Amino acid sequence: MEGMNETGWAPKINSIGSTGTDILEKAIIYITLINVFIKESFKEVVRNLKSIILLMR
Predict the structure, then answer these.
(1) Between the N and C ends of the chain, which has fewer C-beta atoms within 10 Å?
(2) Domain residue limits, the chain
(3) Is 2 helix (H, G, I), strand (E, B) or coil?
(4) Do residues 24 and 13 make contact, with C-beta atoms less than 8 angstroms apart?
(5) What is the pLDDT of residues 34-51, one digit of tens each?
(6) Burial group, residue 21, by CB count within 10 angstroms (0-12, 13-18, 19+)
């Protein structure tokens, strides 16, 4: 539930007792996706730098 609207994104979990569960789950997923993106981007930068260094030799 977000802003008094049921998002349907995740079922309510009554045992947790928080209507902010949807927001927490989304935040965890977004943070995970951002971390994956950063790691993959870093790998690409390192790969490009290695190519540049090899070309400079």
Answers:
(1) C
(2) 23-57
(3) strand
(4) no
(5) 999 999 999 889 889 888
(6) middle
